[in-house]
Write a sequence for this structure.
């Protein structure tokens, strides 16, 4: 067999392998390798962003620590709420208004004050409260979740200035569960000379 | 317990087919005899009847082995010489064509209709001598089919002469043997690795002279043996003589053939083998194709594996990323909640300290106001009314001197601290009831500014 024939024979023998290799490496390998390359690039990008399972324990620990702090703060909040409710005294919770009204009437009588009208005002009739009272009411509502409506007792009475002062002092110092909201003093009409010094008063109490 | 029906089939069967009888012996995969010699009264005188002979033998004998070697005494064998120059460097296929062409001239048998096997015997005097065996293609095909019917395959067909091993001591490499066959005398000699063979036709009247001349080329051969078939010829005296009509010699001879044919991949005898489907070029093409395919698959597999690996990692990291984002959001929310709660708590705690005092102050506020009005009032000033409207508490009165109203306002400002009231300057009006002017009506407004730190605006800030 001549060298040319030998070459031809070997070429024939390796031809299928060559054809398969050329078809694969020209048309197919790029598809496969590009996919792998893209996946690798996506992986490297994620790694470069510092995303790693190793970072998870640190974050988890930070989250747990914050949640523990939150739980502690909520506990503290509850405790503070409870202490506040104590400090809010009679303004928080249900008080026995009848008992209070009776106490007030008694104090009025002690100080020679004549009640001419005694009425309970619903919230719609209270009108605008003074800012300080409004602040207390809002604070109770926000902090202690009390109802926005309050009970007001409006007492119209007749008395002398000094007696009224004494009654108010008494009211503030003897633990009566009432907070003065409005106090007005007007002339007393239709009374004679014997009633000189008497005034008509209107006291609105938050009970 | 022995099951005769499950007797293991031998790997190989050797059939020595003579004109009148056939001798059978079986061997294992290593060429070791595993059966007794069996003599079957069925011979074959013509290669064209070989197939039928095999079928008849199979009827009288146990099933053949998986492969069958046929040592056929009537297989045509020839010696042929060609100029060495002509055949030097020629591949086996071309050489076979040349030998078949030469043989065609001698036998008249067309090479197209026959199968030939050859073996180079020697190169001497610029001539290459070949030993050939030939059978017509149809007979060979029939033989193959006959063996297939017997559930066996033709391992090879050869002439029984020319066993390339010494009978006396098979492991020796220095021996000489004369074999007397019906038409030919074979003289074989081996020195070291050099095996030489010469065939002498009994039809040649000078065969004895030629034999003597051949023997003169091996004066030192100490081991010599002779193998006789049933035809006895006058041969030079040898040390050992073997007769194939004696069973033990025949078994020895067949055993050596078995060893030679089964274990030696290229025994130095011409063997006709059935045409296989093996085509070297096709095998190469398939091999390179499969190899390239495997390489491509390996390459693709590697990248697919890489792709899957990175995709898996990307999916894993994406999940981690999402988890991290979720945790970060939770951290941010928790931090916000914590800050607002802390702020609320701070305020509540601050309020908690102030609220009882504030409530007490507010409870005392009206009494303190009345006290301050009483104490801060000049005898020339009369307070007539106190009016309330939301944040404004208005004190109305009459004074003989306008300054007294101012003095009262200052007094109130100084003596009503921490009651969240801002005292405005009095508004005075001359009532012009006296000649010199006066008295004056006045109006002092106290504005409730709310509890510091409790007002809505302050909370929002």
């Amino acid at each position: 067999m001549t060298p040319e024939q030998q070459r031809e024979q070997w070429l024939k023998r390796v031809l299928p392998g060559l054809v398969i290799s050329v078809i694969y490496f020209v048309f197919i390998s790029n598809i496969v390798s590009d996919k792998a390359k893209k996946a690798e690039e996506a992986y490297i990008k994620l790694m470069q962003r510092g995303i790693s399972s190793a970072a998870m324990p640190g974050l988890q620990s930070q989250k747990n620590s914050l949640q523990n702090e939150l739980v502690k703060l909520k506990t503290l909040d509850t405790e503070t709420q409870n202490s506040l409710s104590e400090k809010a005294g009679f303004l928080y919770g249900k008080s026995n208004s009848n008992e209070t009204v009776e106490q007030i009437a008694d104090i009025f009588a002690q100080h020679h004050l004549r009640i001419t009208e005694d009425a309970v005002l619903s919230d719609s009739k209270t009108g605008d409260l003074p800012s300080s009272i409004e602040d207390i009411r809002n604070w109770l509502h926000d902090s202690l979740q009390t109802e926005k409506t309050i009970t007001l007792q409006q007492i119209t009475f007749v008395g002398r200035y000094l007696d009224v002062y004494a009654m108010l002092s008494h009211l503030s110092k003897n633990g009566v569960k009432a907070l003065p909201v409005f106090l007005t003093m007007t002339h007393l009409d239709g009374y004679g000379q014997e009633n000189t010094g008497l005034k008509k008063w209107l006291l609105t109490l938050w009970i | 317990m022995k099951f005769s029906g499950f007797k293991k089939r031998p790997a190989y069967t050797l059939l020595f087919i003579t004109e009148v009888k056939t001798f059978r012996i079986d061997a294992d995969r290593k060429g070791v005899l595993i059966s007794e010699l069996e003599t079957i009264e069925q011979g074959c005188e013509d290669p064209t009847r070989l197939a039928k002979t095999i079928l008849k033998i199979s009827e009288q004998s146990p099933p053949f082995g998986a492969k069958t070697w046929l040592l056929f005494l009537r297989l045509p064998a020839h010696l042929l010489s060609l100029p060495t120059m002509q055949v030097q460097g020629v591949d086996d296929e071309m050489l076979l064509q040349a030998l078949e062409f030469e043989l065609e001239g001698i036998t008249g048998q067309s090479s197209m209709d026959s199968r030939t096997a050859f073996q180079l015997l020697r190169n001497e005097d610029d001539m290459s001598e070949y030993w050939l065996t030939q059978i017509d293609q149809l007979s060979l095909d029939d033989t193959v089919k006959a063996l297939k019917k017997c559930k066996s395959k033709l391992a090879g067909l050869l002439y029984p002469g020319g066993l390339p091993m010494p009978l006396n001591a098979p492991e020796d490499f220095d021996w000489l043997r004369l074999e007397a066959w019906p038409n030919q005398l074979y003289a074989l000699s081996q020195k070291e690795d050099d095996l030489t063979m010469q065939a002498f036709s009994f039809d040649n009247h000078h065969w004895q002279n030629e034999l003597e001349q051949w023997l003169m080329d091996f004066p030192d051969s100490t081991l010599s043996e002779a193998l006789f078939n049933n035809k006895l010829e006058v041969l030079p005296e040898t040390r050992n003589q073997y007769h194939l009509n004696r069973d033990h010699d025949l078994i020895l001879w067949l055993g050596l053939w078995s060893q030679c044919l089964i274990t030696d991949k290229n025994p130095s005898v011409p063997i006709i083998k059935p045409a296989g489907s093996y085509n070297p070029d096709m095998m190469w093409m398939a091999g390179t194709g499969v190899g390239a395919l495997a390489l491509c698959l390996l390459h693709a597999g590697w990248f697919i594996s890489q792709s899957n690996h990175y995709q898996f990692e990307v999916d894993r990291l994406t999940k981690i990323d999402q988890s991290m984002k979720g945790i970060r959001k939770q951290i941010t929310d928790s931090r916000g909640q914590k800050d607002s709660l802390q702020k609320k708590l701070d305020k509540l705690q601050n309020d908690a300290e102030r609220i009882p005092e504030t409530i007490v102050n507010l409870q005392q506020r009206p009494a303190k106001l009345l006290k301050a009005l009483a104490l801060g009032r000049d005898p020339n000033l009369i307070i007539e009314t106190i009016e309330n409207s939301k944040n404004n508490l208005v004190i109305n009165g009459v004074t003989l001197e306008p300054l007294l109203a101012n003095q009262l306002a200052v007094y109130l400002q100084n003596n009503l601290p921490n009651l969240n009231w801002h005292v405005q300057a009095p508004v005075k009006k001359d009532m012009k009831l006296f000649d010199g002017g006066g008295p004056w009506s006045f109006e002092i407004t106290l504005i409730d500014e709310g509890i510091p730190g409790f007002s809505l605006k302050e909370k929002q800030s």
The radius of gyration of chain A is 45 Å.
